[in-house]
Amino acid sequence: MPSLALGVDLGGTNARAAVVDRDSGEVVAAHKEPHQDRSAEAVVAEVVGALRSAAAAARIDLQACGQVGVGVAGQCHSKAGTVLNAPNLGWRNVPLGPMLSKELGLPVRIANDLAVAAWGEKRFGAAKGLSDVILVFIGTGVGSAIISRGQLHEGAGGVAGEFGHIKVRPIRPTTAVRTCGCGMTSCLEAYTSGVNLAARVREDLQAGVRTLVRDLVQGDLSRVSAAVVDEAYSRKDPYVIGLWEEVADLMGTAIANYVTVLNPSRVVLGGGVILWCPELERLVRQVFEQQASRTALIGFDFARAHLGDDAGVIGAALLE
Ligand SMILES: [Zn+2]
Q: Is the dihedral of CA 17, 150, 284, 253 positive or negative?
């Protein structure tokens, strides 16, 4: 009988619960529930329902697993079990851990979604066996998680690794200052996330900029994405060359600074803006190589995230 664990990936649109084999990292059974209502009470009921369905599919008793881990798309204070701020759920200071624990009759661990993804990659993915690793995620949003001495580094207030909100200055003076979803200006995420890149290219198209991107989306601006922009780069579109050089400079320099300060042995790259944009990934790595401290590069490498959407439930289930 394999040793099983329970993990939940709680996002802005749904909750996915899974039963995970502790020894192999395999997802034995999973169940996804879309949010009908984002109130904390309704979401707790959904998570409980999703866990019961996943456990039933795996033919196990929920109580037999001993603990539930939850990765939340938001800032968390793990020790208190509190979600400090989850914009996609509209939550502030929700005591999710204690609420779930009361309903389930089990101890509940919560952590940020990227922290649990990094933990999943450390246990069974691209960072397996390494003790000092950073996960950098560049997708819809931009974020990171730090594993130091084999443990998740959460910081004094539980919010370490907020990589998307470090401040940056684009190299081109013509680039306007952009406001981030967090309300501040000049955040890395405001210039480099998938959502913000698409918004920026759409604004430029509406302002009449000439670029191959317009042809690639056949004039339908809702189809603009980082992957389409990357395709235009490979066809040497001058507008995109300027944009991609700027984005790569910001991202490559930011990752280089991170590695210079923390000296990890690997950075695991995840998220569609890196994984589905080979030209941008190449440019980011070039800038990184130029900017990182020479000594921090000894024994260092990059890897691409392996576990995809399962990283969150696997990492959550195996939280210690
Ligand atoms: Zn921000």
A: positive
Distance 227 CA to ligand 1 centre (A): 23
Residue 185 Cα to ligand 1 midpoint, Å, equals 7
What angle is formed at CA 188 by the lines to CA 297 and CA 125, rounded to 5 degrees?
50
The number of helix segments (H) and strand segments (E) in the chain equals 11, 13
How much is the pTM?
Answer: 0.94
pLDDT digits (tens, 9 = 90+) for 67-108: 999 999 999 999 999 999 998 899 999 999 999 999 999 999
Q: With residue 202 as reference, give the H or E element that holds it.
A: helix 194-206
From the CA of 311, how far away is ligand 1's center (Å)? 24
Q: How do strand 4-10 and strand 68-72 relate by DSSP bridges? A: parallel
Tell me the CA–centroid distance for residue 178 and ligand 1, in Å: 10
Distance 11 CA to ligand 1 centre (A): 19
> pLDDT tens-digit profile of 123-138?
999 999 999 999 999 9
Cα(86) to centroid(ligand 1), Å: 13
User: What are the C-alpha distances in Å from 46 to residues 7, 8, 27, 74?
Assistant: 14, 11, 20, 18
Ligand 1: centre distance to CA 163 (Å): 9
> How many angstroms separate the alpha carbon of residue 122 from the centre of ligand 1?
27
* Angle (nearest 5°) at CA 151 between 145 and 157: 60
* Residue 128 Cα to ligand 1 middle (Å): 30
What does the buried/exposed string (b/e) look like for 119-128 if buried means 16 or more CB atoms within 10 Å of the residue's CB? bbbbbbbbbe
The rounded Å distance from CA 298 to ligand 1 centre is 32
Q: Which residues contact 171 (CB under 8 A, 6 or more apart)?
A: 245, 246, 249
Asked if 52 and 62 touch (Cβ cutoff 8 Å), the reply is yes
* 3 state DSSP class of 56: helix
Distance between Cα 161 and ligand 1 center (Å): 13
- What is the number of other CB atoms lying within 10 angstroms of the CB of residue 34? 8
